[in-house]
Amino acid sequence: MKILVLNSGSSSLKCQYFVNEKSIASVTIERIGEKESYMTLHFKGPPVKHTIAVKDHHHAIVTLFERLKNTRIISDIGELDAVGHRVVHGGPHFSQPVRITGTVIETIRSLIPLAPLHNPANLEGIEVIAALYPDLIQVAVFDTAFHQTMPDCTAYYPLPYHLFESASVRRYGFHGTSHAYVAKEASKILHKPLKELNLITLHLGNGASAAAIKNGISIDTSMGLTPLEGLMMGTRSGDIDPAITPYLMHQLHMTAEEVDTMFNKESGLKGICGTNDMREVISHTEQGDEKSRLAVEMYAYRIKKYIGAYAAALGRVDAIVFTGGIGEHASKIRTLACEGLENIFGISVDEGKNSLNDPAIQQKDSKVALLVITTNEELEITRQTQEVVIHSKGNL
Questions:
Q1: Per the confidence metrics, is the pTM higher than 0.85?
Q2: Which residues contact 258 (CB under 8 A, 6 or more apart)?
Q3: What are the tens digits of pLDDT across the range 333-376?
């Protein structure tokens, strides 16, 4: 099956082309709408980068399809079985991937207030393709869908109940495709059905989230109504006292918008030590920089707290999975996050394996498997898109 996976951002367009779940090529267009845009193509050799002018997303998608045809990656758009779209927020409406219809588009549009930076860009890619190729099947795969299995006691905030009814204020969670993918991969590694596994999955990148997966389904996750809640991140604060907002507004005369910007773009690692690149933070730590050391300790400590909380929620933990750029490559963070958990949970890191980023980094006598798994959200989107296409054809 031939699937094109599309991730449409506010100023970028990323795509990956799969044939029978094998990645054939990828194209990224950046700085859409600026004087100079960049297109990078990965196909049969080293990446090729071009400087082009792309005025908007409509132009970007036309340019993308032209490049796919000109390089003979595909001969005709009609040969695609479907386009799978990453859509960040599905709200309470979508717990599964869906074939995109007019009703689905309007529902995604209604959720823009919950994801004002992401859903409009996701929608633009969907609508442009619908206009250019109306017969092409499009599928929406939602970041929030995987976590819609959370029970109400986990999903609801202790706020007036009418806020959920009137404004959909509740916890949704994000990074769902990544958590779903690595959970399935963990099942393969452990040679045990996913429905029999209890996992703590840690997606650690510039954005970071944890998930508690019981018998294969998500029962809790660290991100909430928005991707701001939860773990300390590259530029996001994660969990904080909500009273900080009115305090800053009254004491420092900051506006709500300024506080929101600070929490999302000027906090986390960047707020503590000046950079959100964990590689730089760890390097500065090794050079004796105290703020960088503090940032690393804070980052790892908050991961450890979630491991403890989710272990209690699950009752039994079969494996902890580290993924994302930091989770996959920063052995120091994995060490610190698991430090001191041997006596409580039987979690024990093999530092030799950990330093090599081995797929399994636990000691032989560890009661909990510690896995390092490279995430592949595009492949997960492809698989979910295929399922929708097969189901759709079966109902014809």
A1: yes
A2: none
A3: 999 999 999 999 999 999 999 999 999 999 999 999 999 999 99
Q: Are 39 and 29 in contact (CB under 8 A)?
A: yes
Structural domains in the chain plus CATH codes: 2-142 (3.30.420.40), 191-377 (3.30.420.40)
Alpha-helical regions (H) of the chain:
57-70, 102-110, 119-132, 152-155, 162-167, 176-190, 244-251, 256-265, 268-273, 278-286, 290-314, 324-329, 331-338, 342-345, 351-355, 377-394
**For the segment 39-50, what is each residue's pLDDT rounded down to a tens digit?**
999 998 899 998
* Dihedral class, residue 307 (left if φ above 0, else alpha if ψ from -120 to 50, else beta): alpha
CA 211 to chain centre: 12
| Distances from the Cα of 267 to the Cα of 143, 247, 299, angstroms | 23, 17, 12
pLDDT in tens, 235-252: 999 999 999 999 999 999
Q: Are 349 and 364 in contact (CB under 8 A)?
A: no
Rg (CA), the chain: 22
Active-site position among 56, 76, 143, 358: 143
3 state SS of 381: helix
Contact 207, 236 (CB under 8 A): yes
The percentage of the chain sitting over the pLDDT mark of 90, rounded to a whole number, equals 88
**The tokens of 180 are what?**
């779903």
Q: Is 143 a catalytic residue?
A: yes
Q: What angle, rounded to 10 degrees, do the helices at 290-314 and 331-338 form?
A: 50
* Mean pLDDT of the region 217-232: 96
Cα separation, 98 vs 104, in Å, equals: 8
